Amino acid sequence: MDDPYQILGVAKTATADEIRKAYRKLAKALHPDANPDNKAAEERFKNVSQAFKLLSDPKKRAEYDAGQRAGFGPGMGAGQGMGAGMGGGARGPFNFRQTRQNNRGFDDIFSDLFTDFGAQAREAPRKGADVRQILTIDFLAAASGGKHRVKLPGGRAVEVAVPSGAADGQVLRLRGQGETPPGGGQAGDALIEIRIADHRHFSRDGDDVRLELPVTLSEAVLGAKVRVPTIDGPVFLQVPPGSSSGSLLRLRGKGFASGKGKRGDQIVRLVVALPAQDEALRAFLQTWTPASGYDPRKGL
């Protein structure tokens, strides 16, 4: 059999609706009831019907197209004849003479021609399309979790339960909140991508939270108990005597939830901050010398 696209007069990129419209037009013009005793029209009608049955079935159409790309002949699908691909159902080929003998009209005939196509749609209802949206939340909201409202494409608002410890780029799926397919069926899902805004002081490292904490020279040298912000609120931290800039201190369990019933830590990096103008400190350092042999750059 010839190329089904050529038989229906449609492009290989034709949509299902374009294929259906082309078929209806040809079928009405070529139907045996409209062309009594016209063998050529009857033969063309059979070919048009077979071409439509192949191209209206997404699976068979895909197999046929794959066969063409693989180099099979115009009437062959991937590994099978076109006739076998279309005439292999339990219904068999149409019997046009029997149709006329039963005095059935065009409406009944077209009902038969679309029965297989419609039955297939009923047997495998299509799921609606998923919709996507971005939800931007602040750093502390990601740490604690909670409910947020987000507006989906189309204007409908839904409530999203963000888990504590949510990660940037994490996608939450709201089942059944997507689009409903034409003619009914299962709605798609809403996919909500979490974006976490930067924080002024905190940063995230896996489940750990990092913070740079300025301390005075005396706090670093002599040690001190200082107030430190965390995602749960401020706590006190003991700075050991003789701490240098860059020293790391750990606050256990003050990080993000790990999803395993545990939490990460908060890593505090000390930064010694000196005043811009302190004459007393300047005068002291002019008379102070480090211990003999001390060289902070010895390892460089």
From TrEMBL:
InterPro entries in the record: DnaJ_C, DnaJ_domain, HSP40/DnaJ_pept-bd, J_dom_sf
Taxonomy, superkingdom: Bacteria
UniProt-recorded Gene Ontology molecular function terms: unfolded protein binding
Domain J positions: 3-68
GO biological-process terms attached to the record: protein refolding
CDD domains per the UniProt record, alphabetical: DnaJ (cd06257), DnaJ_C (cd10747)
Alphabetized UniProt keyword annotations: Chaperone
Chaperone listed as a keyword: yes
Coiled-coil ranges from the UniProt annotation: none
Annotated SMART domains: DnaJ
Ranges that cross the membrane: none
The keyword Chaperone belongs to this UniProt entry's keyword annotation: yes
Cellular component, GO annotation: cytoplasm
Protein name stated in the entry: DnaJ-class molecular chaperone with C-terminal Zn finger domain
Species per Swiss-Prot/TrEMBL record: Maricaulis salignorans
